[in-house]
Amino acid sequence: MRRIEVAGPQPYAVEVGPGLLACARVPQRQVALIYPEDLPAEVVARAQASLSPVVTVAVPARDECKTLAVYGHVLSCLAAANLARDGAVVGLGGGAATDLAGFVAASYLRGVAFYTMPTTLLGMVDAAVGGKTGINLPEGKNLVGAFWPPAAVWCDTDTLASLRPEVFREGAAEAYKHGLIADPSLLGRVLDPEFRPGGALLDTTLTDAIAVKADVVSRDLTERGERAYLNFGHTLAHALEAVTHHTLSHGEAVGYGMHYAARLSRALGGEDLTGHTLAFLRWQQPAPLPDLDFDALNAYMARDKKADSDGVRFVLLRALAQPYLARVPEGLLREEFEGWQADVRALS
Ligand SMILES: NC(=O)c1ccc[n+]([C@@H]2O[C@H](COP(=O)([O-])OP(=O)(O)OC[C@H]3O[C@@H](n4cnc5c(N)ncnc54)[C@H](O)[C@@H]3O)[C@@H](O)[C@H]2O)c1
Ligand SMILES: O=C(O)C(=O)C[C@@H](O)[C@H](O)[C@H](O)COP(=O)(O)O
Ligand SMILES: [Zn+2]
Q1: Helix or strand or coil: residue 226?
Q2: 3-dehydroquinate synthase C-terminal domain spans which residues (predicted)?
Q3: Best mutation site among 65, 167, 168 for ligand 1, i.e. most ligand atoms within 8 A of its Cβ?
Q4: Which residue segments constitute the domains of the chain, with CATH numbers given?
Q5: Which of 38, 157, 288, 294 has an alpha carbon within 20 to 30 A of 119's alpha carbon?
Q6: Residue 244 contacts by C-beta under 8 Å, 6 or more apart in sequence?
Q7: Gap from CA of 85 to ligand 3 centroid (Å)
Q8: Across the chain, what does the average pLDDT equal?
Q9: What would the mean pLDDT of 193-213 be, rounded to a whole number?
């Protein structure tokens, strides 16, 4: 078992290894367990055996659970079960379920203890760590939420065995992102055939990718500064998710978005890293994109949470592991969008 410490106002540990669902224990007597309805029954059963929850809520799969309606339903289930303030919410599943569960934990009775049991690669390297919780609005991605860190994170690598290969590759986008913004040694490892459930490179690569996130959120929980770099590729990614009504997954959108951000970085004088972002897209094989209209996407990009009253800011790279925030003139955004579309079309 590997252990990564997360510092900050409420320090906690991320444990990584096989069999962890069976070992997970929480001090709270009352536990609410929230998980996606398509999660394999044996994964749910292992979490239930460890936690003996007083209430379990199965929610729709993927981002269909990150809605105001599902959020309200889960809150009502907890209230109906008389979950008290000294109880806990545990999010089990991919990033969508843990984002929802975290926001429920942050807001139910004005806040109860929260734990995560990520069961996707993306959940383990990114979503379950760091306390960004939330749901979507029709107007855009993750527009409602709270910073509410978990008290512990259990990454049971056995659970990755049942993931569809394309869902594993979706999650690799965030590990690759950690390589681009902070630890270039991850880039080759993420694309290595041994980085797969049960593969020789799984545990070390997973742990090193988690360590990047843990380091950043330890220093900047509430995104006053460097945490924004974890958003590399996300300004376009979130817009792509919104215009496709989430038929494009987050991990695929991030793969596409990182290539756009790499093009913008190059156009503003940075090192040309588009070879890396294209190599990732060729490896990931994301779902093809529908016809896209720049103005429609730009309307969603304008709501990006990195925007301030002077407008949107993008995370760009001067070189590998040298991220910075910058405003980009609309003309350049449009021009690079054309080039990005041509690159993306050439992939298929
Ligand atoms: N809070 C954060 O910091 C953060 C970071 C990155 C992404 N996110 C969010 O995470 C979400 C994407 O997460 P994701 O990529 O994990 O996708 P997901 O949560 O949508 O899960 C993908 C699918 O895999 C299923 N699944 C989960 N575990 C499984 C398993 N072990 N075996 C078989 N099937 C399994 C899920 O039920 C779902 O159908 C997005 O909503 C994104 O916005 C949040
Ligand atoms: O943890 C962060 O900070 C991130 O930005 C990680 C992202 O991968 C993640 O998708 C996050 O949910 C995006 O946050 P948002 O603030 O842009 O909604
Ligand atoms: Zn992300």
Answers
A1: helix
A2: 171-307
A3: 167
A4: 2-165 (3.40.50.1970), 232-347 (1.20.1090.10)
A5: 288
A6: 289, 290
A7: 30
A8: 97
A9: 98
